[in-house]
Amino acid sequence: MNNIAVVYKNNKPAFIDIFKKENINYEEINIEDIADDASLFNNYDVIFVDMDEDIDKALKLINKTKFLKDNKVVIATSANPNNLNIQQAITAGASDFLRQNIDAETLLKRLEYYSVSANQKKDKAAYDVILDAQPYNVFTDSILKRSIRFDIKKEENLTSAWDYLIHYADSKGNLCGLRLFFSIAEWLVNNTDKYHIIYEEDDDNHYVTMQYKPIPKKVISSLAVKHCKYDRMRYDDEKISVVLKKEQNAQEQIRYKKKINAKEFMEMTPLEIGAKLDMLEDLEDRLTLEINNLYTNKDRESLQTIADLFKEYSNIIFLLNEFEKLSNAMNIMANTIENMEIGMLNEDETVNLVVSLLYSLIDDLNKWRIKVFVNQEAQDVHYLDDSLLASCNQISSILQRENSSENDDEYGDIELF
Amino acid sequence: MLKKVVFVDDSKTVLMTAELAVKPLVEQQVIDIITYDDATKFLSDVENDFSFDLLITDVNMPNINGLEMAKQIKSNPKFMAKPILALTTENSPELKTIAKEIGLTGWITKPFKPQTLEKAIKRVLRIR
Fold first, then answer.
1. Which residues from B are below 8 Å from A406, CB to CB?
2. Which domains does chain B have, with CATH numbers?
3. How far is A382 from chain B (nearest CA, A)?
4. Closest CB to B17 among A377, A391, A415
5. Tens-of-pLDDT digits for all 128 residues of chain B?
């Protein structure tokens, strides 16, 4: 378990009793002792902040933790949560919201998730620092992007790395490399304490590198020779790299393979997302109201309110993970509305058009939320992602009255068979 | 005679931008537009004697894949010869091959230029 801190003023949150009962180590910190200095949190990975006694101070602290090293997992807590304080906490940067009278089983499940999340954040932070360094792989002097790193301690970690890798198993030419990779990776699991698998890529290839503590070259070379003579593998004392040729349109194929239905998605999402979904519903209602107000209040302030609500929607979708494209689409809408010429609202026809387009967008989002999270009936949770992003770009062109010929490259074309 | 063009897309936003794009053709009384944001509703209407001259459909929809829907429609002798266009963000050759095998007439990628959609409808329906 990671280092846990519980921050409150006078009234102990009820879940502390569960920590005690389950022998979970934690430290209690008085919110008054922290003043404005959130750096005290540097020693903790998971931080619970009570919102009930001094909400302003709690929000300030949550906000400041965003800028700390390793980016902490901060959980806002309250004995009497309401939509407003949940929304404020999430907007300030909290990863989740927890009711203080939570039952032990749910709390333990959540702790497990927070712990994984904290470790991922740590790994990512360590990883970001070295992004400017030389490539890990032993094939190239430069790389276009380093996509992910897995720390392998046991076989389960290898499964995640393997899942990630098989998305690239799209050509026969790569199969030998994949087989070799897996054999050596498995051998390393059984013969080393810990090693890393790092994925990098340039325009033409993916590079998968296993980095380990020095192992005699003889062992590595015999492993390589044992599995195949493979010119797309190179090694030295501390790493083995395998190069996988990129297929044309590989990205599209990957995305197509990764379809996941709503039920599976919800089963795989351990984080309690109810609070965030309530906030989305609330924002949809407020957006509908504000959009309707455009008929009577045709001013900059009304547009700004709508833009701000779209931004809030975007932030919350981003926190759901996995839906960055939808979040990006909402951001595009916010910016479009923010930059709309106010003169456009003098034309009744344009107001009708804006209102109808925005209503249809809210309707799409509402249906998506219900089909994916409430009824869990969508066959693909990402069914709306690309479509809505494309629509928002299109609405943006319409509302900003762009000359379409200026942006021809961004638009698709017709292909008759 | 007015040609009946059907758009099927789960996104009302897409349906609306498509309607805006083909507005000139509607105003010229060349085509008539019918939109469905529920593919299963469209399939049930088709089974109940509804007909069309051109179907333009999304591919990724929550309840049924657009290509699967096109396959079902093409299996009905009444619609075998009806043109169907995909209007989608998908662009993979694999999917396009499947679309060709099913008998789709063409593929338009989103986001689309209004003129592209208008041009596609004119070409497929041979409208001058």
1. none
2. 3-113 (3.40.50.2300)
3. 9
4. A391
5. 789 999 999 888 889 888 888 988 999 998 999 999 988 999 989 888 788 999 999 998 887 889 999 999 988 888 888 999 999 887 778 888 888 888 899 998 877 777 888 888 988 888 87
